TrEMBL record:
Pfam families: Sec1 (PF00995). Belongs to the STXBP/unc-18/SEC1 family. GO terms for biological process: vesicle-mediated transport. This is Vacuolar protein-sorting-associated protein 33. It comes from the Eukaryota. It comes from Pisum sativum. Gene3D superfamilies: 3.40.50.1910, 3.40.50.2060. InterPro entries: Sec-1-like_dom1 (IPR043154), Sec1-like (IPR001619), Sec1-like_dom2 (IPR027482), Sec1-like_sf (IPR036045).
Length: 596
């Protein structure tokens, strides 16, 4: 099963980005002559698996190891560390080198930082008196193609760093990544941004263009017509809701990591030897591409129909005489049998979670909170979860969702739940609650909530959603249209101006600018709602919009954007970029830490 996604059908040449990253890594390894041991931090190893196959690394005379506190087990005299710029990883490196020195091992050390070296990391080496032993370099991996329409900046902690730690370095990283795209595809002429971080990125991007200009005269027409930048803080409601698309549910329950899930082999009907199996989930799997964005209810029906159809074909094959072309068709269908078996097994496994009363109860409660009804029922339900000692993350998801839609909790409820959480789950979680408070995600109510106005004006709750034949993005949550994607819809259809009053009710400033010297490129306002031909670039392709989520995007939102792009009335292609693909659990986990 191919791990690296096929990018041949991407609306813009993402293969060139991947190949460039591949070539840069190979050049780093070639610069260290002879046999060498490449020690990668495990998190980065997952990312690299989407860029380069380990067989190619071995061709460069490379032994592969994962960085940990344990000594490096290798006979190589040349060690190349490839790590993200994080001080805790530097401590592992120092521990490894100190161990070598104590054993009298003489080795040549190289450390390459991803995407760039930082003073704080080099200071760790200096403090440990090891700096002089290292050759230091950079591997500028700013952007990772996850699939043919999805890019990741691989900045897991950027949301928490911006909101809690006051560390905005990730914003420079995002602007740099977009600017690198501009060197490949031309200056992006139209920019829409909403949220403090997004507006800042737009500003940094303009400064980068002034200091290191992409030469617009080299490009007849930019390939990316527009970039929409959106802070996660602007819409925290969506990631806290349970996703109901196939891919979204796979992430909620099995945790998709860099385009694959790692599960017990028995789930796929393999021998029960306790071994984990990695299942790639990207558009190289044709069946997955067909069903990933659908509501899970529909997926179960489609898989059932496909299985029944194949069973009927088999019966026809064995009971009637078939022509050669009919035989060929049947063999072609048989080739898709492994994919079908895999997804039937995965769907069956997901059904064991989605049919549980706890999950159905949580869905009901999310809908109750979004529709701003029956607060007492919400509080009773959350109180019951705490008393049953349900996982802390489950409780926090609902509490934070309530806090955001109601501009906080009434003081007596806030104090009560804070006390109950610490009493039931332990005072070591005080740091987590402090982080959530600092981020404004769990707070006392100090003003009236604007949620009802936002919900009504943007039509976020859609009654009688047809999940089988959807005509609105609300199908991804069975009735709730993601706020973030409603904003993207407006940004594309008519710009920010018609929704200016609503934008003022949401966190952070908004911005709308035109840059570069492309007076003949289609203006942003022509991308939808008027003849399709106007939204095409001269060679006949559809105009391309880059949608950037600062702080994370969910698979359900990606599905909603794909749904929009597939509509005949929408005359553009979309590429989605995000700091990370998240769900309610993984997003809140970045805020969690234990005292001591």
């Amino acid at each position: 099963m191919a791990q690296i996604p096929n990018l041949d059908n991407a609306p813009v040449n993402l293969t060139s980005i991947r190949e460039h990253s591949q070539k840069e890594l190979i050049n780093i390894l070639k610069n260290v002559r002879g046999k060498k041991c490449l020690v990668i931090d495990p998190k980065l190893g997952d990312s690299l698996s989407l860029i380069i196959q380990s067989s190619i690394l071995k061709e460069q005379g490379v032994e592969l190891r994962h960085l940990s506190a344990d000594p490096i087990q290798s006979d190589c005299t040349k060690i190349v560390f490839l790590v993200r710029s994080q001080p805790d990883l530097m401590r592992f490196i120092c521990s490894n080198v100190h161990d070598d020195v104590s054993k009298g091992l003489q080795r040549e050390y190289h450390v390459y930082f991803v995407p760039r070296r930082t003073v704080v990391c080099e200071k760790v080496l200096e403090d440990e008196k090891l700096h002089h032993l290292f050759t230091i370099g950079e591997y500028p991996l700013y952007l990772l193609p996850m699939d043919e329409d999805v890019l990741s900046f691989e900045l897991d902690l950027s949301f928490k760093e911006c909101l809690v730690d006051g560390d905005a370095s990730s914003l420079w990283h995002i602007a740099k990544a977009i600017h690198k795209l501009e060197f490949s595809f031309g200056v992006i002429p139209n920019v829409r941004a909403k949220g403090k971080a997004s507006v800042r990125i737009a500003d940094i991007l303009n400064r980068m263009q002034a200091e290191e200009p992409v030469n617009s005269s080299d490009m007849v027409m930019p390939e990316i017509n527009t970039v929409i930048l959106l802070d996660r803080e602007v819409d925290m409601v969506t990631p806290l809701c349970s996703q109901l698309t196939y891919e979204g549910l796979l992430d909620e329950f099995l945790h998709i990591n860099n385009g694959s899930v790692e599960i017990d082999g028995s789930i796929l009907g393999l021998p029960q030897d306790g071994k984990k199996t990695k299942v790639p989930l990207n558009s190289s799997d044709k069946l997955f591409k067909e069903i990933r964005d659908l509501n899970f209810e529909v997926v179960v029906q489609i898989l059932r129909q496909k299985a029944t159809s194949m069973k009927q074909d088999y019966t026809d094959m064995t009971t009637t005489t078939q022509s050669v072309s009919e035989l060929k068709d049947f063999v072609k269908k048989l080739n898709s049998l492994p994919e079908m078996t895999r997804h039937i097994n995965l769907a069956q496994h997901l059904s064991t979670f989605t049919s549980k009363p706890t999950f159905l109860g949580q869905l009901d409660m999310e809908h109750t909170i979004i529709e701003a009804q029956s607060y007492d029922i919400c509080f009773e339900y959350i109180e019951e979860l705490i008393h049953k000692q349900e996982p802390l993350i489950t409780v926090l998801r609902l509490l934070v969702l309530f806090s955001i839609t109601n501009s906080g909790l009434p003081k007596k409820h806030f104090d009560y739940f804070r006390r109950e959480l610490l009493h039931s789950y332990g005072f070591e979680h005080l740091a987590t609650l402090n982080n959530l408070e600092k981020a404004g995600l769990f707070k006392k109510q100090e003003s009236r909530s604007n949620w009802l106005t936002i919900k009504r004006t943007l039509e976020l709750v859609v009654e009688d959603t047809d999940t089988a034949n959807p005509n609105d993005i609300a199908y991804v949550f069975s009735g709730y249209a993601p706020l973030s994607i409603r904003l993207v819809q407006h940004a594309i259809r008519s710009g920010w101006r018609p929704v200016e009053e609503i934008l003022k009710l949401l966190p952070g400033p908004h911005l709308e600018t035109r840059r570069g010297g492309f007076s003949n490129s289609p203006s942003f306002d022509t991308l939808s709602g008027i003849p399709t031909s106007m939204a095409k670039v001269p060679d006949g392709r559809r105009a391309l919009v880059l949608v950037v989520f600062v702080g994370g995007v969910t698979f359900a939102e990606i599905s909603a954007l794909r749904f929009l792009s597939a509509q005949e009335s929408m005359a553009y292609d979309l590429v989605i970029a995000s700091t990370k693909i998240v769900n309610g659990q993984t997003l809140l986990e970045t805020f969690m830490e234990k005292l001591g």
